[in-house]
Amino acid sequence: MTTGEWLQEAAASLRAAGVPDPARDALLLLSDALGGDKAYLLAHPERPMAEAEAAGLQGPLERRRRREPLQYIRGFQEFWGQRVKVGPGCLIPRPETEHLVEEALRLVASQASPRVAELGTGSGCVLLALASERLEAGLYGLERDPRALAWSRLNLAGEPGVSLLPGDMAQEPPIEGLDAVLCNPPYITDEEWGGLPPEVCCFEPAGALRCGPDPLGPYRQAGLWAAKALRPDGFLLCELGVAQARRAAALRRLYPELRWVRGVRDLSGRLRVAIWRRE
Predict the structure, then answer these.
(1) 216, 239 in Cβ contact below 8 A?
(2) Quick check: 148 pLDDT over 90?
(3) What's the CATH number where 26 sits?
(4) Count of CB atoms within 10 A of residue 92's CB?
(5) How far apart are CA 216 and CA 213, in angstroms?
(6) How high is the pLDDT of residue 278?
(7) 83 and 102 fall within a common domain
(8) Domain residue limits at 42
(9) Is residue 64 pLDDT above 90, yes or no?
(10) Domain count within the chain
(11) Whole-model pTM above 0.85?
């Protein structure tokens, strides 16, 4: 079998399983397995495949056929120009979350050594991005899920300015006087959950995604936590889902001690990040 033949057969197999982009996924699995450049593999479909190479691809291909996220199979996801290690038990970083990082960096730009906490740090991708831009910052990550905390510790190992703590926003803040609090709360409603692809609803941690019956419930909890942990004039930044963006008026009145600053839209024009300042 040649690599070109394998790609055709693998893509057909993934297509039959309902995978959205079967040709791309087959090529990524092949390039990972062979350690080759994707462009080279496409330009040389006549390259022969050893029997061991083809056999080694059966496991990853079958995992993708079962709709396991490609990021879990490959073991990483790109975020802020870095490879973030991911796997079962942690939320896969989304490109849209980079807006949260951009706004946080803008708001603490004037601080000499900003102190920033993230509620529900998950893979640690946000703190990793902040650490790469502000080496002197004091960064804190809270995570309640032991599996996700293991991934954040793996990704943030060797970052001297980062402290990871077990816990969540339902508990009293273990730190105070923060310049900013960041949060990507669970924002998928029960109505939206049923329409999600299997890669999300069958594999990623539901606790990091589902907000429950009240779309703003996790946000109010984050507001209460931030009001206690922020210094006066410190900022709370939260990523928003569709259901929360539709409730912009309620977001402005999230918590008595937090004053609405602005909303930030993503490249598609959707309200993506909300920002408040502690009075």
Answers:
(1) no
(2) yes
(3) 1.10.8.10
(4) 22
(5) 9
(6) 98
(7) yes
(8) 3-66
(9) yes
(10) 2
(11) yes
